[in-house]
Write a structure and sequence with these properties.
Layout: H1 5-27, H2 31-41, H3 60-69, H4 73-76, H5 85-93
Helix pairs in contact: 1-2, 1-3
Length: 99
């Protein structure tokens, strides 16, 4: 997908916020730790990067669960295979955009 720089930056910020929210809520990280984790998971990629934004193919919930529980999280924690009701509700109220 091709985004304008503004669209890319907005999407990047949203995913960082959501990732940090999951890491605080489910990973028991502090605010500072969760933001550091989000920045590490979602680094800025220049517009000419070959696979810019590839991380966006899965939502922040998935990447955070991988970091917290490992690649078998869907098997070992099937209740976490889909985003929690709380996370989903955030998106329905628009709050997830500011996690």
């Amino acid at each position: 997908m091709t985004w304008s720089e503004a669209e890319y930056l907005e999407y990047l910020q949203v995913e960082r916020r959501c990732y940090a929210w999951v890491m605080r809520r489910h990973g028991d990280l502090t605010l500072a730790e969760s933001w550091a984790a989000a920045l590490a998971c979602y680094p800025y990629e220049p517009s000419d990067a070959a696979y810019r934004g590839l991380v966006f193919h899965d939502e922040a919930w998935h990447w955070a669960m991988l970091a917290i529980h490992g690649e078998r999280y869907t098997v070992e924690h099937p209740e976490l295979a889909q985003p929690s009701a709380e996370y989903t509700a955030l998106g329905q109220t628009g709050v997830v955009r500011s996690c």
